[in-house]
Amino acid sequence: MPGPALQVQLIRQWRPWEKFTGPKTEAGKMAVSKNAYKGRTWRILRGLSCALRKQNRRLVE
Length: 61
Prior knowledge:
Elements: H1 4-14, H2 26-33, H3 37-60
């Protein structure tokens, strides 16, 4: 494995930041835009679960 200095030099020559690999078509962009949505569902369910627990505690008292 190359040393850190050589690795830095190789990466600067390679320039991976200039080679965009993201979606290029509109369909691909729409599909990728939904990736961040997955986490929101979990938060909503967590909030509902917390509310149900509180309600259940009140009913038990």
